[in-house]
Task: inverse folding
């Protein structure tokens, strides 16, 4: 009986760590996350940064947060770029109309940290 139980546990361990299709499906479903509300603005931040720094590679991305005023809101991001041998950060602020979501202003500020 012990040999059967040990065999069962070994098989269970094998299927739990292998790429068994059923295990992979459950893991994939468990890791599915909803799209964050700032995703649209993050995409725009990446696009605008690529236009401003066409030769730089974007190597990191951080959503800092949102500030809200009476008519506009501002999404704030920090991107880390690498161009040639230089690495630097860029703060990107995207101000937009809260009702229409039309972009009012995009600003960039480089940082060494």
Result:
């Amino acid at each position: 009986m012990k040999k059967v139980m040990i065999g069962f546990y070994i098989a269970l361990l094998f299927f739990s760590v292998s790429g068994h299709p059923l295990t992979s499906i459950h893991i994939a479903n468990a890791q599915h996350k909803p799209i964050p509300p700032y995703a649209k603005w993050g995409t725009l931040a990446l696009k605008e940064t690529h236009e401003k720094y066409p030769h730089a590679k974007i190597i990191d991305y951080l959503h800092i947060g949102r500030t809200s005023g009476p008519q506009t809101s501002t999404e704030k991001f920090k991107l880390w770029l690498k161009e040639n041998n230089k690495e630097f950060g860029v703060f990107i602020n995207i101000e937009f109309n809260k009702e229409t979501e039309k972009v009012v202003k995009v600003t960039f500020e480089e940082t060494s940290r």
In short: The radius of gyration is 23 Å.
